[in-house]
């Protein structure tokens, strides 16, 4: 065993010094021994067979140097630091896997699209760009690629049906444009220990008249936020002072845009009923016609970006940030705010990404028990006053492999081999244990996750539940994600800073979105699936029509409603 570990180390050291590593089964076996073991959905014979396929398929590309890029999250750090060197040692293809900010990934991709210069040989970029890739036709259709130029380098054991996010990376034309690499959902996070404490439960019921539990609606979330903010929780093992009932972030930064486009608006009830995204009005408030052509964003054109539900969504976020959240959160970005609940003074957080799970289960944290189980749990997020059954209730990030047409065929083939390696059944279970971002059904159902589930606060139960299909990425209504996404943080940042009211900020946002749609329409670059704006009408015409957009409700705070977490979990099983 030690010899095999050493052989991997020697191979990796040789790569570091620019010397040729051997591409054979010895390197593969050493990798399987040292890194994978039984943390795989394939048995050892299956693992070796898959590795042999990679070795054989990589023969024409040995010595080639390939560059790929992804955002910096735990899963991609593991790929870059562990899986890329292993792939290099096993196949002889030298992989450089760069890690940069998510906004920078989009910028590099946009530059490659505009210039035609091959900056990276493959990108892991969010499936939120599916509408962009489908309309611009600058990303290779993987459906065509796997049947044509990529056929000789497509793993017969890839098993596309096993990828839980493939429907999110498939466009209305039925073509697969991206291969899911990792997924994480935006869920509700709360202190299970505090919520189950008898004194806390009694005090909450005495004040609000209903049981403390997982909030089903925003009214309950607000009541719970108010209840815990400033409360002495020392009797339940928490801090005596500095307790807050909400956590969020508000800095004028690109991540502020994702905080809203990542389904906050549909959670409030903006947009239409439909899965995986609202039809015809989605969670960005953009309406499309029967041919999937974007026709408007403002209410006057049938959009919902500035309707009453959208204004309510932004108003509540700002109100809770100011009243129930640590004051410093108003100046934080997504990355800075993420670790704060682990410090032990936050009671709940509605807008919480499961990508933070790995950082929240570290031994010794104030939110962890000594036996390695968490004091917290995750659950579905509550919905706002405008929400209707069947409307999207949450966001799921699907970081996916994307091959651009501007990448030369041989480089794309070599990069495609690496993309399949890091998502293969051989390595996916181990990768998922490291990053906790599931992409394959076979991984979610693996026995090792049944065993680990009690230590992950509901993550495994959520991904095994029928509920997970209601969480989805940005859909195909968005014709140019890079151009439209930047409008969100700039306009909502004005509302966060108090420079504009939520209504003024959203009026500005929808008009700016329509300017982009209009420019795309005039340019004609997206052909007969590009935008075709409706004529403006009296907004009341659209408000009187069924579905989105909607008029203001008389009562935006109905009775709070909660559910027992343990009953919720039972309903999933």
TrEMBL record:
Signal peptide (residue range): 1-23
Alphabetical keyword list: Signal
Keyword Signal (UniProt): yes
GO molecular function, one term: transmembrane transporter activity
InterPro entries: ABC_tp_sb (IPR014597), Bact_solute-bd_prot1 (IPR050490)
Gene3D superfamilies the record matches: Periplasmic binding protein-like II
PANTHER family, alphabetized: ARABINOSE-BINDING PROTEIN-RELATED (PTHR43649), POLYGALACTURONAN_RHAMNOGALACTURONAN-BINDING PROTEIN YTCQ (PTHR43649:SF33)
Protein's name in the database: ABC transporter substrate-binding protein
Organism of this sequence: Neogemmobacter tilapiae
């Amino acid at each position: 065993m030690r010899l095999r570990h050493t052989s991997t180390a020697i191979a990796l050291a040789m790569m570091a010094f620019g010397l040729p590593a051997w591409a054979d089964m010895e390197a593969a076996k050493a990798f399987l021994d040292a890194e994978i073991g039984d943390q795989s959905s394939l048995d050892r014979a299956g693992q070796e067979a898959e590795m042999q396929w990679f070795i054989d398929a990589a023969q024409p590309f040995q010595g080639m140097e390939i560059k790929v890029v992804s955002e910096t999250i735990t899963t991609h750090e593991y790929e870059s630091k562990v899986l890329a060197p292993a792939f290099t040692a096993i196949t002889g293809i030298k992989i450089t896997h760069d890690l940069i900010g998510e906004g920078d990934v989009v910028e590099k991709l946009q530059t490659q699209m505009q210039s035609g210069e091959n900056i990276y040989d493959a990108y892991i970029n969010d499936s939120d760009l599916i509408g962009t890739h489908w309309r611009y036709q600058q990303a290779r259709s993987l459906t065509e690629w796997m049947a044509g130029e990529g056929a000789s380098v497509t793993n017969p054991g890839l098993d596309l049906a096993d990828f839980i996010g493939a429907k999110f990376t498939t466009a209305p034309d039925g073509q697969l444009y991206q291969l899911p690499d990792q997924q994480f959902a935006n869920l509700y996070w709360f202190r299970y220990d505090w919520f189950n404490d008898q004194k806390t439960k009694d005090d909450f019921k005495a004040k609000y008249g209903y049981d403390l539990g997982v909030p089903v609606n925003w009214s309950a979330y607000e009541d719970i936020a108010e209840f815990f903010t400033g409360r002495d929780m020392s009797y339940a093992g928490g801090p005596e002072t500095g307790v807050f009932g909400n956590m969020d972030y508000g800095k004028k930064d690109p991540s502020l845009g994702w905080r809203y486009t990542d389904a906050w608006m549909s959670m409030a009830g903006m947009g239409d009923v439909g899965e995986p995204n609202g039809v015809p009005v989605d969670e960005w408030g953009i309406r499309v016609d029967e041919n999937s052509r974007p026709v408007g964003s403002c209410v006057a054109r049938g959009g919902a970006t500035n309707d009453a539900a959208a204004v309510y969504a932004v108003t509540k976020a700002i109100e809770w940030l100011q009243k129930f959240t640590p004051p410093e959160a108003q100046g934080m970005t997504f990355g800075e705010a993420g670790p704060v609940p682990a410090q032990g003074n936050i009671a709940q957080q509605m807008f919480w990404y499961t990508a933070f799970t790995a950082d929240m289960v570290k031994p010794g944290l104030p939110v962890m028990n000594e036996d390695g189980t968490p004091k917290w749990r995750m659950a579905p997020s509550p919905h706002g006053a405008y929400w209707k059954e069947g409307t999207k209730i949450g966001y799921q990030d699907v970081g996916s492999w994307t091959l651009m047409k501007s990448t030369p065929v041989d480089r794309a083939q070599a990069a495609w081999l690496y993309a399949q390696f890091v998502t293969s059944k051989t390595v996916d279970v181990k990768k998922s244990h490291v990053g906790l971002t599931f992409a394959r059904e076979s991984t979610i159902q693996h026995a090792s996750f049944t065993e680990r589930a009690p230590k992950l606060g509901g993550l495994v139960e959520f991904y095994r539940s029928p509920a997970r299909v209601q969480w989805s990425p940005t859909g195909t209504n968005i014709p140019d994600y890079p151009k439209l996404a930047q409008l969100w943080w700039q306009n909502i940042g004005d509302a966060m800073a108090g420079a504009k009211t939520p209504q003024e900020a959203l009026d500005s946002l929808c008009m700016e979105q329509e300017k982009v749609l209009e420019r795309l329409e005039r340019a004609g670059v997206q052909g007969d699936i590009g935008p075709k704006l409706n004529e403006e009408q009296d907004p009341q015409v659209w408000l009187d029509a069924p579905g989105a957009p909607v008029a203001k409700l008389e009562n935006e705070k109905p009775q709070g409603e909660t559910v027992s977490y343990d009953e919720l979990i039972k309903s999933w099983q």
